Amino acid sequence: MMKLALEDRVFSIVIHIALLFLAFVTFYPFWNSAVISFNLGSDTSLGGITFWPRVFTLENYQVVLNDAKILKGFGVSIARTLVGTFLTIAATSLFAYGMSRKELIGRGYYMTFCIITLYFGGGLIPTYLLIRGLGLFDSFWVFVIPSIISVWSMIIFRTFFREIPAGLEDAARIDGCGYWGTFLRVVLPLSGPVVATLSLFTAIAHWNDWFVASIYINNQDLLPVQALLKQTLDSNIASELTQDSAAQSFLAKRQSYTTKSLTMATMMVTTVPIILVYPFLQRYFVKGVLVGSLKE
């Protein structure tokens, strides 16, 4: 028993060390980006910035937050995230509730068609032609309508709805509720954890997406902040390719901020808001609220 306890202790120590190393490797790039964003750009160009700013400054953030294009991009991203998340969760949960009903005729065929879309797509060119044909090109709704139904989320919703005790829905029917009343008054209120979790995943997908804007948006006023960040990164790479190291050092000395420092500040500004959402939804990632809701 002592030998077994020693082996368990060694195994626990090894697991903890491995997890700490994995956490460090995962977190360090984000921390280093934050450090660079708070460091003077001209000093960052000298290298050697690792765990702490060498010359602390807020000028990088002042430049970013004073950029009207960035602020407008934030407005587009916030509007897209809120509207897109609400419509996607509403439409997908309603679709999933219908698919969870045993009395739905042909639901096996519908489910097969849905599964096919997870593995096969039309491709970029047919999708582009479809978007243009629907009049969504260079429109805010191109961010929302094409992704309004998520088959992956529908499957999760459907599985969760099937676990709701039938007695609750039968009681609602006895009280005079139809399908709409049962869905809105019984099913959705009991689906808080899955709604919160999938809302978070959907919001993150909307907030972080830049590809849709790069393909379907030409109007600079409709670009979300992630697309603007992508443009900044591309310009940073282009400037590094076209300028030699001596020219970059000369330009860095003439100004207190550089393209890299502004890029890191923009990354922090665009990343922190969505990270702050996690603490408010963390409690929904634990055990569901259905435990003990019905005694039979």
From TrEMBL:
Residues 74-281 form the ABC transmembrane type-1 domain. It comes from the Bacteria. Belongs to the binding-protein-dependent transport system permease family. PROSITE patterns: ABC_TM1. Keywords: Cell membrane, Membrane, Transmembrane, Transmembrane helix, Transport. It is a multi-pass membrane protein. The keyword Zinc does not apply. It comes from Paenibacillus ehimensis. This is Carbohydrate ABC transporter permease. The chain crosses the membrane at residues 12-31, 74-97, 109-128, 140-161, 182-204, 262-281. Pfam families: BPD_transp_1. It is found in: Cell membrane. Gene3D superfamilies: MetI-like (1.10.3720.10). InterPro entries: MetI-like (IPR000515), MetI-like_sf (IPR035906). The keyword Membrane applies.
